[in-house]
Amino acid sequence: MGSQWINLTDYTVTQQVLFFADAIFWAVTYLLVIYYARKYKFFGIPVEAAVANIAWELMFSFFFTTELGDLFVWGIRLWLFTDVVMIYFHFKYGAKQVRVPLIKQFFHLASIIGFVFWCWIIYGFATEYGDPIGAGTGYILNIIMSTLFIFLFLAHPEQKALNFPIAFWKGFGTVFVGIGIYLGDTPSPFVIAVASITFMLDLFYMGLTLNREKVIAFIKKNKQDEQISETVLQG
């Protein structure tokens, strides 16, 4: 394995630059989520995906280590410091995303159970199939997160904590790893497929955030049409 800090034996300089760019973009994403959560009193990541994401970072900080080099191992561990703040805002404002009364009532417990379950799933997947840099499990979580971002925005289009800056940094940060793996000697068809679909979902989410007023107007019009239809049927 090349350098202790950066593995240039199994990965090229270009790949390492892409992986490093991914880490920077995700770090900015986390800082933006924290900033907008404080500003708008709304947690800007789908809560279902947030617990999975934190579980991934915990598992790849201490139970598994990426083979990219110690720089990335410690980089993931440093993310845990931002996770502490993220967890705080998750528990403080995350329940606002939930519309099912029973789940909302037990939101904290559901979050903890979800975190434990995702740790178990990630451990099982990485142990059975292998996940040398965490890309396999990472992209499974990312495609779920990108899908949930769209549904969350459509449910709360007025929430400004769901915005283009977060969508941009998250979307392009995620795609860098897919490109890096594609450029490798043995590219993973699974990771490339999931990375491509995830990026398409992220682009769609970016488009939604850039057209917030049109989305709100469309949703309002649909609700009005539904009310008119119900009135006609009842009459």
From TrEMBL:
The keyword Membrane applies. Pfam families: Pyr4-TMTC. The chain crosses the membrane at residues 17-36, 43-65, 71-94, 106-126, 138-155, 167-184, 190-210. The keyword Zinc does not apply. It is found in: Membrane. It is a multi-pass membrane protein. Keywords: Membrane, Transmembrane, Transmembrane helix. InterPro entries: PaxB-like (IPR039020). This is Uncharacterized protein.
